[in-house]
Automatic annotation (TrEMBL):
SUPFAM superfamilies: PH domain-like. Gene3D superfamilies: Pleckstrin-homology domain (PH domain)/Phosphotyrosine-binding domain (PTB). This is WH1 domain-containing protein. It comes from Aphanomyces astaci. Residues 126-151 are annotated as: Disordered. It comes from the Eukaryota. Residues 1-115 form the WH1 domain.
Length: 151
């Protein structure tokens, strides 16, 4: 049974990066370049995230990638973001709405930063911290913060 939930959604046009010319090309899927994107979280002990985008009219999936600490979310300008997947595939996302562009960047960047923090804590074998209530696992604390980002 999956415990995956939608934590954020937005609309954007998808662009691909032409490797030879280094130009952004609009990915026109069935005459509709705008897709709906969803950020999903698998609500496990250590949350896992993925981003899926599809064209609502046709159901064509245009993006389906895990969000990991190896992803890069780089705002190029107020309306355009360069996103590099864990598989080193780079796409562009163009927002029509400035507020949604800023909100999407804030949320995705916080998720990615928290994933880095969790991975760093795990690799450093973070010692347990102590608080008034007793022992507090720093990794659990970071994981809780990660879950809070999306609520």
């Amino acid at each position: 049974m999956s415990s995956e939930v939608t934590v954020y959604s937005f609309k954007a046009a998808l662009y691909s990066l032409d490797e030879s010319s280094h130009e952004w090309l609009l990915s026109d899927t069935n005459d509709d370049p705008v897709a709906q994107y969803y950020v999903f979280m698998d609500n496990a002990d250590v949350p896992k995230f993925r981003m899926v985008g599809w064209v609502e009219d046709s159901g064509d999936v245009v993006l389906n990638n895990a969000l990991t600490m190896h992803c890069i979310w780089l705002p190029v300008n107020e309306y355009f973001v360069q996103f590099t997947t864990p598989d080193d595939i780079t796409v562009g996302l163009s927002f029509a709405d400035l507020e949604q562009a800023q909100e999407a960047s804030t949320i995705v960047l916080r998720i990615l930063q928290n994933l880095v923090n969790v991975a760093t804590s795990e690799s450093n074998n973070v010692p347990r911290e102590y608080s008034e209530g007793g022992e507090v696992d720093a990794l659990s604390k970071t994981t809780s913060e990660l879950k809070e980002v999306t609520t």
